[in-house]
Write a structure and sequence with these properties.
Blueprint (H helix, E strand, L loop, with lengths): L2 E3 L6 E3 L3 E2 L14 H14 L3 E3 L8 H13 L4 E6 L1 E3 L5 E3 L3 H15 L4 E6 L8 H13 L3 E7 L3 H10 L4 E5 L11 H8 L2 E5 L28 H21 L3 H10 L6 E2 L6 H8 L8 H13 L9 H4 L5
Parallel strand pairs: 3-4, 4-5, 5-8, 8-9, 9-10, 10-11, 11-12
Antiparallel strand pairs: 1-2, 6-7
Helix pairs in contact: 1-9, 3-4, 4-5, 5-6, 7-10
Amino acid sequence: MTTRELGRTGQQVSALGLGCMSMASDYAYGPSDAREATTTLHRALELGVTFWDTADVYGFGANEELLRPVLQAHRAEVFLATKFGFVADGQGGTALNVRPERIAAACEASLRRLGVEVIDLYYAHRIDPAVPVEEMVGAMAALVQAGKVRFLGVSEASAASLRRASATHPIAALQSEYSLFTRDVEAEILPACRELGVSLVAFSPLGRGLLTTAGPQLAAQDLRRGMPRFDDDNRAANAPLLAGMHALAAAKSCTPAQLALAWLLAQDARLLPIPGTKRPAYLEENAAAAAVRLTPAELQQLQELLAARPVVGARYGEGALRLVNR
């Protein structure tokens, strides 16, 4: 696995990371299996996929706890990112709370669950317009000063919020959804990252499974059932676009997932995709994308395909979209 610099920190991380959200939460992409997830983590170490991403809300702490035994045995090998911000709302859902007074406690709770002394990259999971960015980042910066956190990040932040955050304390990474199916960051956010020397960490780089060979089969509790892009009509409307991508992948002798990841890696030298999986076979397929190099002609073919067949369907429902790019 090749490496890339995280922002302008001098820290090298694996060019492809590992999104861990689905590993200990049946809510995220169907039933999970702790044994298989742990096998996936160990295989990631063998492949050099050592930039791991989790959050305190994934499984309401269960996801961080799942990582703990592997981290305790291999802490020096893993560059560990986690996030704070969402809390249980008492009604089975979540609410956003990034108020400065709770950030230190959230960090301590994550440290305990993960069984580590320091978090390498600590993100605010969303921006709350009611909480000044400067106050939130100021409280996060106190964790750096205390030695609890090494680098800071923000997730789904607008270019304006990123600039305000960076003016308060250096921001190493901005995490946002970015894939062949979700490209809104290209207008303002990716240019701001380049301007500020911030890595864009691309989550859901495979379109939440749409950009894989067979596409996702949704379990009854799968969170994607609430996403407009997964409506039957929208999936049917996007089928010709996916067929075109599959044809390009076949011509390249790679899988559709590998094509999608190689396309992202070609967009910017600091861009870091973090495809999520809980299965070793998919991890191996994704990791192999680091060796796929797209030519200028192939990149142009993809661009022309996307221009000819725009993606149909929003990535989130209306409520979740209100917390995006704030």
